[in-house]
Sequence to fold (541 residues):
Amino acid sequence: MTKKRSLMRSIAAAPHVFWAVLFIVLPLLIVAYYAFTDADGAFSFENILSLADYADIFLLSLELSVIATLVCFVIGYPLAYIIARSKPRTQKLFIMLLMLPMWTNLLIRTYSIMAILDDGGFLNQLLNTELHIIGTKGAVIFGMVYDFLPYMVLPIYTCISKIDKHMWEAASDLGCTPVRVITKVIFPLSLSGVISGITMVFVPSISTFYISQKLGGGTFELIGDTIERQFVTGALNTGAAISFVMMILIMISLTVMNRFGDSDEGGIIV
Amino acid sequence: MKHLSRAYLVLIFGILYIPIITLIFFSFNAENSTAVFTGFSLRWYRELFASPETFEALRNTLILAITSASLSTVIGTAAAAGLYRMKNKILKSGIMSVTNIPMMNPDIVTGMSMMLFFVAAAGIVGISYDNMGFAAMLIAHTTFCLPYVILSVLPRINELGSSLSEAAQDLGCTPLASFFKVELPNIMPGVLSGFIMAFTLSLDDFVISYFVGSSNFQTLPLLIYSMTKKKVTPDMYALSTLIIVAIFILLLISNIRSSKEEEKRKRRKVK
Fold:
């Protein structure tokens, strides 16, 4: 009886399974198909082999996004910690303040940064200087940090706020200095939040094309820009090959990361 | 220590809000500049409201967000209910990993894969890709919203357990009726927050829409993108200001709603 029931209930998942196969799995197979064929549809390794030409771009993207992720972590962890340790009402306020920029469209935020930092922009007008910021690596990294910082703070905050308040007392009663309470007790307990924060900042950073377009001043080409250019110019096979390789690399690094975090919660809050 | 952490909060939130505040500030600029403020005026708001393009994009965005959020909520809630009962652990985790792919994958890859899929599908069905406009966008948005809906409903179903619906069925409910009458009201908060999340994700999405979209179905993020390709006039700032205000109000409402719910829960616990 129960077996029959649970079978019947499992059927509720059927539309979703159908949807996922048709619109998630099949499109990815098509990407693989495009990656391994030429424009006429004949099998070829040419697209994959031609990726060597993009190695520099890929390394640059990797460099900038790793730096941005690190900066987000260094800025974001203390921020999450301070918010999680404040009064419940204050916590709510800060989380709301953090989410407002996050739900403001990324294009708008990025454009606004550009308008401020531009050569004839607001900052230079205000200070009456001629600082040249747009077009530097620093500007692109700043854009990534600015746009994705909330993604680092929120999962870490969720993790820290779930830690039992008595942990702090217990650790210091047992002789931990305040610094050691954080390094020996709190940080290890918040590791799964850190891992999802890193993922949520790194993945959009390495694949962005808008930030580098606007803040890179046209001099930067990241891997996202390359894919976008293939899409605009209609070189779909090359675009598919780059997407395919990027997807594989990201999936591998995520799997490795998740080994450290050994948790599947804390991933998405908001 | 307390002063230090307060100073830190002020510093970070200050930096976080400077671009947003300057944006709002310059939306009231009298001149056509996003760098030099010459005087207060509502000129850009007037120009914004005079443009039919903006309204069409706004309408499209809302239609898309409502339909894709509804569709993903229905499919996702059913999926969560089904997954909870699934006995086969391997099948279950397999389905979950596939579901999570759009969440893990960079948007640009999801967008690319969807676009190639629709190009192929349009070729097979024999219609022009441009005619798929809304349908393609609806499918794409529903697909990337689904994992978020499932992940917000599934914990609620796990929390509820199966005894209630079993009791209902022992008392003569059909499985379907027990779901709608007993389970659904109990998991409603999860379903609602899944819907809201899907709605905002759809509203905000640029990258996937950019790849999948065609010229005859313009959404706000796509319009903003095409506007920022050229030198931007403050009317885009006016548009952004209105969006920010709308989001602020939405956040405020959902915050008040959730704190009310929390109070209710606390009271229930006291009882």
Observations:
- Chain B touches chain A through 83 residues (CB under 8 Å).
- The radius of gyration of chain B is 23 Å.
